[in-house]
């Protein structure tokens, strides 16, 4: 092996997005699995401690999903955050969610399920023209997701 040792990968909690959404709409079976989309109906977001960032989710966001034959769900969400100062932040998120049939059933019944019982991760890009938030355009972020009753919490961490 040549070269130096890889730099350690560090992250810092940036914000949490709480998304409300409609039930999934099935588009049919495709070669890669069942295709469906989930329209976002609202939600909120808030910056991590010490980060002045909060607001709501604009109408029109969608998560396009593929339910693969092995049960894994590929996620591709695109939506808009509006800060309480009316600054727009575009969110593009790609990832996967994997959970057992038991966990899926419990969530479907509205039960609280520890997010450690399933895998829900995404890669996130943020884009904005807001002067005070331009640093967001220069970051890659990753997230952990958490399904709740009627809401999905996305815990976004910037990669340092």
List the helices and strands and how they pair.
Layout: E1 11-21, E2 25-30, E3 33-47, E4 54-57, E5 62-67, E6 73-83, E7 88-98, H1 101-108, E8 119-128, E9 140-148, E10 151-159
Antiparallel strand pairs: 1-3, 1-10, 2-3, 3-4, 3-5, 4-6, 5-6, 6-7, 7-8, 8-9, 9-10
| Oligomeric state of the chains present here | single chain
What overall form do the CA principal axes indicate? globular
Which architecture per CATH? Beta Barrel
- Return the structural class: mainly beta
Overall tally of structural domains? 1
Q: How is the CATH topology named?
A: Porin
In round numbers, the mean pLDDT is 95
How much of the polypeptide forms β-strand, as a percent range?
over 45%
How many β-strand runs?
Answer: 10
Largest sheet geometry? 10 strands, antiparallel
User: What CATH first level would be assigned?
Assistant: Mainly Beta
What's this, in brief?
Helices cover 5% and strands 57% of the residues. It has 160 residues and is mainly beta. 22% of the residues are buried.
Explain what you see:
This protein is mostly beta strands and 160 residues long. It has one domain: Porin (Beta Barrel), CATH 2.40.160.20. 5% of the residues lie in helices and 57% in strands. The chain is built from 1 helix and 10 strands, in the order E-E-E-E-E-E-E-H-E-E-E. Strands 1, 2, 3, 4, 5, 6, 7, 8, 9 and 10 form a 10-stranded antiparallel sheet that branches. It is globular, with a radius of gyration of 17 Å. 22% of the residues are buried.
């Amino acid at each position: 092996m040549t070269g130096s040792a890889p730099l350690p990968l560090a992250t810092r909690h940036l914000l949490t997005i709480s998304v409300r959404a409609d039930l999934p709409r099935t588009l049919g079976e495709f070669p890669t699995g069942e295709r469906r989309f989930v329209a976002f109906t609202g939600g909120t977001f808030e910056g991590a401690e010490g980060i002045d960032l909060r607001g709501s989710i604009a109408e029109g966001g969608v998560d396009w999903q593929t339910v693969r034959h092995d049960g894994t769900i590929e996620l591709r969400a695109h939506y808009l955050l509006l800060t309480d100062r009316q600054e727009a932040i575009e969110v593009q998120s790609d990832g996967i969610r994997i959970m057992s049939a038991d966990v899926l059933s419990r969530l479907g019944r509205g039960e609280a399920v520890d997010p450690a019982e399933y895998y829900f991760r995404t890669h996130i890009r943020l884009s904005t023209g807001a002067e005070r938030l331009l640093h967001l355009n220069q970051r890659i972020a990753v997230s952990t997701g958490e399904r709740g009753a009627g809401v999905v919490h996305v815990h976004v961490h910037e990669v340092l």
